[in-house]
Amino acid sequence: MISExxxxxxxxxxxxxxxxxxxxxxxxxxxSDRNLTGFAHWLTQQAEEEVAHAMRFYHFLxxxxxxxxxxxxxxxxxxxxxPLEIMEKSLEHERFVTGRINGLYKLAVSEGxxxxxxxxQWFVTEQVEEESSIGEIVERMRMFGVEGPALLMLDTQxxxxxxxxxxx
Length: 168
Ligand code: FEO
Prior knowledge:
Blueprint: H1 4-33, H2 37-63, H3 83-110, H4 114-144, H5 148-158
Helix pairs in contact: 1-2, 1-3, 2-5, 3-4
This protein binds MU-OXO-diiron.
C-alpha cells in the first residue's frame, strides 16, 4: 500500500507537471506572437510531453488504489524575454523538476515502495534527457548567436521536432 506522504507528493508532482505544460504552452504562444514558428512548435511538443508525464503519475496513483487530488495550477507568465532567455528559463525549470523527482525517489526508497521506485526510475532517466536536450540548445545559442541566420537555422531545426514515442 502506498503511503500518505508519497501519495501527497505525487499529487503535488501532477500539479508541477501540469504547470510545466502550462508554462511551455505560454512560452509557445509568446514565440508564435513573434513569428518564431519553430520555437513555438518545439515548445508545444514540450507541453504535450509534460501532460503525458502528469498522466503517468495520475494513472500510477489510481492503479495503487490511492486518491488523485488535483490542485490549482499557478498562472504562468505571458512574456519570457528573448529566445535565449526562454531556453535558459526552460533549463532552469527542468533542473528544478529534476530536484523534485530526486526527492520523490528518495522518499520511495526510504519507504521501501518498489513500484514507485520503478516509476521514478523512468523519470530520473527522462530528466537527464530533458536537461541534456535543452542544455544543448542553450549552448548552441550562446556559441552561434541568437540573431539573423543563426536564429533562423535554429528555428527551422526546432520546427522539425517529432512527437515523442512512448510518452504515455
Ligand atoms: Fe516533466 Fe520536463 O519534466
